[in-house]
Amino acid sequence: MAQSRKESQADLLRSPLPTPQWGSQSGSAFTVRAVVTINASPTDVLNTLLDTTQYPAWNNFVPKVDFPTLSPSTTSLPKGRLGPDILFMEHVDMFGHGKPSGLVKIKLLMTTLKETDEHNGSKSYEALWLGKGYPAWALRSERVHAISCDNDGVTTYDVWETFSGPLAQLVRFFVGTTLVKRFKQWNEELRDYTEARCHN
Question: Which of 21, 10, 12 is closest to 168 using CA atoms?
């Protein structure tokens, strides 16, 4: 496995990226995006992302996840494992200290998980998380997790969330810069945890 590492990147994009559910957005819409390379397989990265029981061990932005309702999808997977059609609640620490106050909670629905066999023999994945905390007419958000591997065996983890609707401007004004920092932190901590598990 290649051991080269590029600096992780994170940005706030005022020209928002389209998402599968909401397509292209305009007006006050914006995107928070972070990209990092990881010396681990795409499957290992995916497992770190979906296993919320391990979030307290590495995730100082979202150190806790609850499942407010049980569904057939929830009960068919290991405890704490995210999958399609699962509704979950992120307990967020906007300071990135790993201490959920209980005041900031984000309700999300994992809508789909796509798996693709690539020409280099690896797999790529795309997981979609849809914001469910507000009516769609007020605030729409969708988080896309794209995981792919290059020919050198290095995985790229690219996550972006596009916000749109009348409340998007307020989100950008009050926490846009903080979200950029936290997305970058999420990526770096996911990278470090996954690499440590794979190579130790």
Answer: 12
Summarize pLDDT for 57-103 with one digit per residue, the tens.
999 999 999 998 776 666 678 899 999 999 999 999 999 999 977 77
Residues in the chain: 200
Beta carbons within 8 Å of 138's beta carbon, 6+ residues apart: 165, 166, 167
What is the spatial distance between Cα 123 and Cα 119, in angstroms, rounded to a whole number?
Answer: 9
Q: What is the reported pTM?
A: 0.92
> What confidence score (pLDDT) does residue 74 get?
62
Residue 11 has which token pair? 């940005």
pLDDT, tens digit, 9 for 90 and up, residues 162-190: 999 999 999 999 999 999 999 999 999 99
CA distances from 21 to 48, 50, 91, 151 (A): 24, 20, 24, 30
For 87-114, give one letter per residue: b (16+ CB within 10 A) or e. Answer: bbbbbbbeebebebeeeeebebbbeeee
157: closest CA among 2, 16, 30, 34?
34
Q: Is the dihedral of CA 50, 54, 55, 60 positive or negative?
A: negative
